[in-house]
Protein backbone atom coordinates (compact mmCIF):
# COMPACT_ATOMS: atom_id res chain seq x y z
CA UNK A 1 0.00 0.00 0.00
CA UNK A 2 1.06 3.62 0.05
CA UNK A 3 2.77 3.18 3.46
CA UNK A 4 4.33 -0.30 3.25
CA UNK A 5 4.63 -2.12 -0.09
CA UNK A 6 4.55 -5.52 1.64
CA UNK A 7 1.22 -5.02 3.40
CA UNK A 8 -2.08 -5.60 1.56
CA UNK A 9 -4.51 -2.70 1.44
CA UNK A 10 -8.16 -2.14 0.68
CA UNK A 11 -9.80 0.55 -1.36
CA UNK A 12 -13.24 1.40 -2.67
CA UNK A 13 -14.88 1.15 -6.05
CA UNK A 14 -18.25 2.74 -6.75
CA UNK A 15 -20.37 0.67 -9.14
CA UNK A 16 -22.89 2.58 -11.23
CA UNK A 17 -25.61 0.40 -12.72
CA UNK A 18 -28.19 1.69 -15.18
CA UNK A 19 -31.69 0.23 -15.23
CA UNK A 20 -31.11 -1.08 -18.77
CA UNK A 21 -27.69 -2.64 -18.14
CA UNK A 22 -26.26 -5.45 -20.24
CA UNK A 23 -24.68 -8.16 -18.09
CA UNK A 24 -21.68 -8.44 -20.42
CA UNK A 25 -20.42 -4.83 -20.62
CA UNK A 26 -18.20 -3.18 -18.00
CA UNK A 27 -16.29 0.10 -18.07
CA UNK A 28 -13.68 0.99 -15.48
CA UNK A 29 -13.30 4.74 -15.10
CA UNK A 30 -9.95 5.80 -13.66
CA UNK A 31 -11.14 9.35 -13.21
CA UNK A 32 -9.00 12.42 -12.67
CA UNK A 33 -7.82 12.65 -9.07
CA UNK A 34 -5.12 15.31 -8.73
CA UNK A 35 -4.60 15.50 -4.99
CA UNK A 36 -3.14 13.98 -1.85
CA UNK A 37 -6.49 14.65 -0.15
CA UNK A 38 -9.06 11.91 0.31
CA UNK A 39 -11.69 14.63 -0.21
CA UNK A 40 -10.94 14.27 -3.93
CA UNK A 41 -11.52 10.50 -4.00
CA UNK A 42 -14.11 9.57 -6.64
CA UNK A 43 -16.31 7.72 -4.12
CA UNK A 44 -16.46 10.75 -1.87
CA UNK A 45 -17.23 13.06 -4.78
CA UNK A 46 -19.98 10.76 -6.08
CA UNK A 47 -21.52 10.16 -2.63
CA UNK A 48 -21.59 13.86 -1.75
CA UNK A 49 -23.28 14.89 -4.98
CA UNK A 50 -20.67 17.57 -5.68
CA UNK A 51 -21.43 19.68 -8.71
CA UNK A 52 -19.41 18.11 -11.52
CA UNK A 53 -19.32 21.35 -13.48
CA UNK A 54 -16.93 23.00 -10.99
CA UNK A 55 -13.98 21.21 -12.64
CA UNK A 56 -13.81 20.92 -16.43
CA UNK A 57 -11.62 17.77 -16.43
CA UNK A 58 -13.89 15.96 -13.99
CA UNK A 59 -17.09 17.07 -15.71
CA UNK A 60 -15.79 15.80 -19.07
CA UNK A 61 -15.00 12.38 -17.61
CA UNK A 62 -18.28 12.11 -15.73
CA UNK A 63 -20.24 13.12 -18.83
CA UNK A 64 -18.36 10.43 -20.77
CA UNK A 65 -19.30 7.62 -18.44
CA UNK A 66 -22.83 8.98 -18.05
CA UNK A 67 -23.18 8.47 -21.80
CA UNK A 68 -21.98 4.88 -21.39
CA UNK A 69 -24.53 4.32 -18.62
CA UNK A 70 -27.26 5.41 -21.04
CA UNK A 71 -25.91 2.81 -23.49
CA UNK A 72 -26.33 0.02 -20.90
CA UNK A 73 -22.74 -0.26 -19.68
CA UNK A 74 -22.03 -0.92 -15.99
CA UNK A 75 -19.39 1.58 -14.80
CA UNK A 76 -17.02 0.94 -11.90
CA UNK A 77 -15.19 4.00 -10.53
CA UNK A 78 -12.32 3.00 -8.21
CA UNK A 79 -10.59 5.19 -5.66
CA UNK A 80 -7.41 4.30 -7.52
CA UNK A 81 -5.10 6.33 -5.29
CA UNK A 82 -6.00 4.04 -2.38
CA UNK A 83 -7.13 4.86 1.16
CA UNK A 84 -4.25 7.30 1.73
CA UNK A 85 -4.66 9.22 -1.57
CA UNK A 86 -1.21 8.23 -2.83
CA UNK A 87 -1.04 10.75 -5.68
CA UNK A 88 1.22 9.66 -8.58
CA UNK A 89 1.69 6.10 -7.31
CA UNK A 90 1.34 4.42 -10.68
CA UNK A 91 1.78 0.84 -9.56
CA UNK A 92 -0.71 1.20 -6.69
CA UNK A 93 -3.19 2.92 -9.02
CA UNK A 94 -2.85 0.16 -11.60
CA UNK A 95 -3.48 -2.55 -9.03
CA UNK A 96 -6.48 -0.67 -7.60
CA UNK A 97 -8.02 -0.39 -11.06
CA UNK A 98 -7.45 -4.07 -11.85
CA UNK A 99 -8.84 -5.06 -8.44
CA UNK A 100 -11.93 -2.92 -9.09
CA UNK A 101 -12.54 -4.80 -12.34
CA UNK A 102 -12.17 -8.18 -10.62
CA UNK A 103 -14.41 -7.19 -7.70
CA UNK A 104 -17.13 -5.82 -9.96
CA UNK A 105 -17.12 -8.92 -12.17
CA UNK A 106 -17.35 -11.16 -9.08
CA UNK A 107 -20.16 -9.21 -7.43
CA UNK A 108 -22.83 -11.93 -7.64
CA UNK A 109 -25.80 -9.64 -7.04
CA UNK A 110 -24.95 -7.77 -10.23
CA UNK A 111 -24.69 -10.96 -12.26
CA UNK A 112 -22.11 -9.82 -14.78
CA UNK A 113 -20.92 -12.47 -17.21
CA UNK A 114 -17.38 -13.62 -16.36
CA UNK A 115 -16.55 -13.15 -20.07
CA UNK A 116 -17.83 -9.56 -20.11
CA UNK A 117 -16.34 -7.01 -22.45
CA UNK A 118 -14.21 -4.77 -20.23
CA UNK A 119 -12.93 -1.39 -21.34
CA UNK A 120 -11.39 1.45 -19.41
CA UNK A 121 -9.77 4.82 -19.45
From TrEMBL:
Chief location of this protein within or outside the cell: secreted
Protein's recorded name: triacylglycerol lipase
Catalytic activity: a diacylglycerol + H2O = a monoacylglycerol + a fatty acid + H(+); a triacylglycerol + H2O = a diacylglycerol + a fatty acid + H(+); a monoacylglycerol + H2O = glycerol + a fatty acid + H(+)
Gene symbol of the encoding locus: LIP3
Annotated keywords: Hydrolase, Lipid degradation, Lipid metabolism, Secreted, Virulence
UniProt-listed GO biological process terms: lipid catabolic process
Segments traversing the membrane: none
Keyword Lipid metabolism: yes
Example of a GO MF term: triacylglycerol lipase activity
Protein family membership: Belongs to the AB hydrolase superfamily. Lipase family. Class Lip subfamily.
Amino acid sequence: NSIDPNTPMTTVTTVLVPDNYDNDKLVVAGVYEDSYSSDCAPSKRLASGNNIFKNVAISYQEMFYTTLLHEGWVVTVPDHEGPHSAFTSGRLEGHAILDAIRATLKYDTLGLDSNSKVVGY
